[in-house]
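Please, structure for the following, as tokens.
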Amino acid sequence: MVTLSSDATPDVSRRDLTLDLARVAAVVFVVVVHLLQVGVGYGPDGGIVTSRPAESQPWFAAATWFGQIMPLFFVVGGFASAAGWSSWTARGGDAAGFVRSRVLRLAQPALPLFVLLAVVLGVASLLPIDPAIVDAAALGAGMPLWFLAAYLLCQAGVPLLARLHAVAPRRTLLALTAGVFLVDAARYSTGIKQIGLLNLLFVWPLVQQIGFWYHDGWFDRRRPSVLIATAVAASVVLAGLLAWGPYAPDLLADLNPPTLPLVVLGVAQACVLRLVKAPLTTLMRTRVLRTVVWLVGSRLMTVYLWHLPVILVLSGLLLLIPEAAPAPASETWWVTRPLLFIATFAVVLALSVLLVRAERIGRPRRTAATGPVAVGWICAFAPPFAVMEWGMSAAFAVGGALLLAASVGLLRWSKRTDEAGGEETGEARRR
């Protein structure tokens, strides 16, 4: 989370705020992309139809080369994880305690969303609503949840990958890169897409590892000309992979399961991020921008998880107002997207007033018992992974709510090893 100073804005002396800006900008950009992918309107027969207007445009595939922002998010996340792990171990924390705190940061914000979806989808199944509309809405609401599964895997691997980075940084990169190549080769040679799921263990951890190198100052020590050359070379390789490789030219299609082009794009984005650090630093010296970054950054998971459900609800409400819902992909539809973006953010930020407590985990415990943390991680990982693979449904929403509740409860209340080496329960500590 963004650190606050005495004037309620991020303290520029304590961290690289350009990375906070990059993380917030990435999530805001995700909101924009999803806003352009949600088309809800009336069909010729007067029935409600759904579509993905942006994806029907001839420029969409090329736009994803610039608009696929998730590798940058994992690079920045890798920097934050490296810094967090270094600080954590310096204070005497262990791996289980670190993973526990990271799982809670993801599971707690996701729990209210799964609970709401379980109620809404359960009620919708009992009402005379076209099941196709309900299914489309459920799929849309669950679209961003793949990130939770991928990020939970990355966070669980931080202790091991940080140690490997410390002792063998190049060999760690090579090993992860080899894993990406082997999984992609097996997937595309056999035509079995599910093999690509193994790249959850390689692609995003590898991109996260680039963030470790960013944290170590490798990018800071490179001359601008080297960074520019590296970014250009990565872009050329990316273009070659998409043009002549087995990959889809649409980088959103290469997202799940993740593939090699995302790694190459992550390298280019890391170089560009370092190249624009000076102007971003200047921007972050302004009180207004620091306040905006803090406002959004302190509610980042709420914004990410809730923006699509809010977009769907607002789009549905517009259908109830005569002439307020333009036909998707029409000229009026495109013109009104900025207004819907403003409305979406206003509603999400209003919701965050109620939900922001879900992003707070309290004072992190430096140590924890490995068994409960492992079970808590599994309970948190299973729901978003299932949604990523099969889409959101009432059953997955109910099951996900139960598993996430179990994860949060287990991680908050199970026995833990205290700093002195003994054990106490969460309830005992509260007393």
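The beta strands are 39-42, 48-51, 416-417, 423-424. The two ends are 27 Å apart (CA to CA).
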